[in-house]
Amino acid sequence: MNYLSPILRNNRTFLLAYDHGLEHGPEDFLLEKSAEPEFILELAEKGNFSGVIFQKGIAEKYYQSWQNIVPLIVKLNGKTKWQAGEPYSPLICSPEYAKDLGAVAVGYTIYPGSKFEHLMFKEFGQVVEKAHNLGMAVIAWLYPRGKKIDNENNPQVVCYAARIGLELGADMIKIKWPLERKYLEKAVNLARPVKVVLAGGERISEEEFFKRTKEVIVSGGCGLAVGRNIWQRKNALEIAKKLAKIIYQR
User: Considering 56, 174, 176, 195, which one is annotated as catalytic?
Assistant: First the structure.
């Protein structure tokens, strides 16, 4: 069964991430309108996104009137930036509840290298089994962090993270930029047949972001899961449309 089909176009995906209010706080909303979920949903529709990523609270209160317009991915776990020590992102929503909210897929962040990775591995395994029984795809955010991780963009670290996604049963994985295209190709090959999307990350120049997007596609990646590099900009819709053309190659 192809669990990913609801969020794929031409075997590619372009996901608008919006879990930042919980993970990073209001300071990420540099433009006042970016704090409004309705603006994000309108951007997702007009910008030709293949899915939008919300935590359950936003999905509960804003998504219903958009169910037939933009596919929903519900983020099942989360934490704040105030969490002390090594990272652990606890489960705060079930796949069953996400399905009731209209989600076609769910997301879960894993921090390999954290002393709490065993808890996240256990939760993730349960999420995969439940989501697949419901016919839903599972996307793993793979962000290695902890005492042994000195740079999460280190190519070897990113490649290891990609392989972990395959080993744990993800349908799609979201990884950091591994500094060079050749390492992105390696990560994609290590995860195959799992689909690989690049995390947008902190805002960078438009030119650099377009370059990275092209390299994702050339390297065999599936697309992007991006937030700040789009909705933090005044020309968000224009940027989204340009990225969509690169990803879908239309």
Answer: 174
Is residue 143 part of the annotated active site? The answer reads: yes
Contact 19, 52 (CB under 8 A): no
- Which domains are present in the chain? 5-248 (3.20.20.70)
- pTM of this prediction exceeds 0.85: yes
Tell me which residue has tokens 């065999």.
220
Residue pair 174/202 in contact by the 8 Å Cβ criterion:
no
Q: What is the average per-residue pLDDT within 85-110?
A: 97
C-alpha 147/C-alpha 241 separation (Å) is 40
pLDDT at 250: 62
Mean pLDDT of all residues belonging to the chain: 96
Region 9-21: what's the mean pLDDT?
96
Reference 221, options 55, 72, 15; nearest CA is: 15
1 confidence band (pLDDT: 50, 70, 90): confident
Report which secondary-structure segment, H or E, holds 191. helix 181-191
Q: Is the distance from CB of 105 to CB of 51 less than 8 angstroms?
A: yes
Residue 17's Cβ-count burial label (10 Å; 0-12, 13-18, 19+) is: buried
**Residue the block writes with tokens 């962000």:** 143
Please choose, from the candidates 179, 172, 182, 189, the residue with its C-alpha nearest in 3D space to the C-alpha of residue 225: 172
- Active-site choice (111, 143, 176, 195): 143
Contacting residues for 99 by C-beta, under 8 A, at least 6 apart = 134, 136
Is 174 annotated as catalytic? yes
Res 249 pLDDT > 90: no
The arithmetic mean of pLDDT across residues 16-30, rounded, is: 94
